[in-house]
Design a protein that fits this description.
Blueprint: E1 3-8, H1 17-26, E2 36-42, E3 49-55, E4 74-76, E5 82-84, H2 94-98, E6 105-106, H3 120-123, E7 139-140, H4 146-150, H5 168-172, E8 178-182, H6 189-197, E9 212-215
Parallel strand pairs: 1-9
Antiparallel strand pairs: 1-8, 2-3, 4-5, 6-7
Bound molecules: iron/sulfur cluster (3 copies).
């Protein structure tokens, strides 16, 4: 079992729905987005085009952020998720430097919110229930919505199939641009899509073997 995601560049419209869904699910502090939109201009006027792609932690199979962590706060699970234990993280930032995608974020000592104070949703740390006060001075990133995956245990529900146990960004996408599933199952929808559409990971030269595959625009 190795969880992964495909992002269909032919379907994604760059609407930011997934970025906002993630923000809402995790109620991240000001300035921290686990998921972002990347833009690039290609070609020359009048044939110039603006390309876009959502990006987040790739939950790499060979994650350079893991071996550099001096406290083992960053670790890799059997199912491929790369996570951070905030109780053990000392905020040294080695992992931020090691990540070639710049998908790790430092939680500042002073958590910034609107002057009116925290909403009840923010106080609860979003649906994910993050204790942002306890995470001050540590490093955070996309969790592949592990709290949603965990809900599947003992229920018969399947991540990638049932909405309740599938990452928030995936179920929110109005263009149905993403698929979540088991990369190790050759018969899974995600494995078939990657094979048929020639899915690719970002920065292959980094040797990280991402669990997020982009499907080229047809
Ligand atoms: Fe680590 Fe960066 Fe890979 Fe995420 S994308 S697993 S933070 S190296
Ligand atoms: Fe490990 Fe935290 Fe240092 Fe990152 S900032 S390397 S997770 S102790
Ligand atoms: Fe955010 Fe969850 Fe999507 Fe990661 S998997 S980008 S944490 S909504």
């Amino acid at each position: 079992m190795r969880w992964g995601m495909t992002i269909d560049l032919g379907r994604c419209t760059g609407c930011y729905g997934c970025v906002l869904a993630c923000k809402q699910e995790h109620s991240t502090p000001t300035g921290i987005h686990f998921r972002r939109m990347m833009f690039e201009e290609v070609g020359q006027y009048p044939a110039a085009r603006r390309l876009h792609a959502p990006v987040q932690c790739n939950h790499c199979a060979e994650p350079p952020c893991v071996p550099v962590c001096p406290t083992k706060a960053t670790y890799q699970r059997q199912d491929g998720l790369v996570l951070v234990d905030a109780d053990v993280c000392i905020g040294c930032g080695y992992c931020m430097t090691a990540c070639p995608y710049e998908h790790r974020h430092f939680v500042e000592d002073k958590l910034e919110h609107f002057d009116s104070g925290l909403t009840p949703h923010e106080q609860a740390g979003g649906e994910a229930g993050h204790d942002w006060q306890a995470k001050r001075d540590t490093v955070v990133k996309c969790t592949f919505c592990e709290h949603r995956l965990a809900r599947a245990e003992g229920t018969g529900l399947k991540p990638g199939v049932d909405r309740e146990v599938t990452p928030a960004c995936v179920i929110t996408c109005p263009a149905d641009a993403m698929t979540f599933g088991d990369l190790n199952d050759p018969g899974s929808k995600i494995s078939r899509l990657i094979a048929e559409r020639h899915g690719f990971g970002l920065l292959p030269e980094a040797g990280t073997h991402p669990s997020i595959y982009y499907l080229p625009d047809r």
